[in-house]
């Protein structure tokens, strides 16, 4: 809960800074589905082998040294300190990057030098909301950092503290079909 609350307050602060400087806010987009729309099955565990969606971003804040990208299921409580479930994290994305390709490869270290971890290992596994119950809300978040911390997966969120320059989000909905 603490991390989520910090992110909400930070997003408000970033919005105020962007409004004061006249600089456009960092934006995250995908052509895979509309923001807040249904996530296509090919990007979910309903597919025989899910692939990661491609994302693009624009307007990173001045001073960005690296990015952190993550996917969260807001409807799954899986951690004692959070009301949601972090499902995929990519960190140490180079500052020169302006997106993630569709169908990211598996592996702890990506060709760009970035690192990744997912719920089932160093790979994107996709949304997996159950058949019964409501659609789950998935949020994809991009954080611009003023540092490039060389850390292991367990230290990503701690290393982000005090280094976040900007944040952008994209949302999607998913429930496994019958």
Short description:
The chain has two helices and nine strands, in the order H-E-E-E-E-E-E-E-E-H-E. With 178 residues, it is of the alpha+beta class. The longest helix has 20 residues, at 2-21.
Features:
178 residues, alpha+beta, Phosphatidylethanolamine-binding Protein, six-stranded mixed sheet, three-stranded antiparallel sheet, 2 helices
Set out the fold topology.
Elements lengths: L1 H20 L5 E3 L7 E2 L16 E4 L7 E8 L11 E10 L4 E2 L14 E4 L17 E10 L10 H5 L3 E11 L4
Parallel strand pairs: 2-9
Antiparallel strand pairs: 1-3, 3-6, 4-5, 4-8, 5-7, 8-9
Q: How would you characterize this protein structure?
A:
With 178 residues, the protein is α+β, with helices and mostly antiparallel strands. Mean pLDDT is 87; it is low at 1-12. The protein has helices spanning 2-21, 156-160; strands at 27-29, 37-38, 55-58, 66-73, 85-94, 99-100, 115-118, 136-145, 164-174. The relative contact order is 0.23. The longest helix has 20 residues, at 2-21. It has a single domain (2-174), classed as PEBP-like (Phosphatidylethanolamine-binding Protein, Alpha-Beta Complex). Strands 2-9-8-4-5-7 form a 6-stranded mixed beta sheet, with helices on one face. The protein has 2 helices and 9 strands, in the order H-E-E-E-E-E-E-E-E-H-E.
What best-fitting shape do the alpha-carbon axes yield? globular
Widest sheet: strand order? 2-9-8-4-5-7
Q: Per CATH, which architecture? A: Alpha-Beta Complex
Biggest β-sheet, characterized? 6 strands, mixed
The parts where pLDDT drops under 50 for at least 5 residues are 1-12
Total DSSP helices = 2
CATH class: Alpha Beta
Q: What is the helix content? A: 10-25%
Write down the domain tally.
1
Helix- and strand-based class? alpha+beta
**CATH topology value:** Phosphatidylethanolamine-binding Protein
Radius of gyration: 16 Å
Number of strands: 9
Q: What number is the mean pLDDT?
A: 87
Strand fraction: 25-35%
Looking at CATH, the homologous superfamily is: PEBP-like
């Amino acid at each position: 809960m603490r991390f989520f609350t910090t992110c909400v307050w930070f997003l408000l602060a970033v919005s105020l800074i962007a409004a004061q400087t006249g600089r456009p806010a960092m934006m995250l987009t995908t052509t895979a589905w509309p923001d807040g729309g249904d996530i296509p099955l090919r990007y979910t565990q309903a597919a025989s082998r899910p692939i990661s969606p491609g994302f693009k971003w624009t307007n990173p804040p001045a001073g960005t040294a690296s990015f952190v990208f993550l996917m969260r299921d807001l409807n799954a409580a899986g951690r004692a300190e959070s009301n949601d479930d972090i499902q995929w994290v990519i960190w140490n994305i180079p500052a020169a990057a302006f997106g993630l390709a569709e169908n990211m490869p598996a592996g702890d270290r990506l060709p760009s030098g970035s690192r990744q971890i997912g719920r089932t290992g160093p790979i994107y596994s996709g949304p997996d909301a159950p058949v019964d119950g409501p659609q789950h809300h998935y949020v994809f978040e991009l954080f611009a950092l003023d540092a490039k911390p060389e850390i292991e997966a367990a230290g990503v969120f701690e290393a982000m503290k005090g280094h976040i320059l900007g944040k952008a989000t994209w949302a999607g909905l998913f429930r496994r079909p019958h």
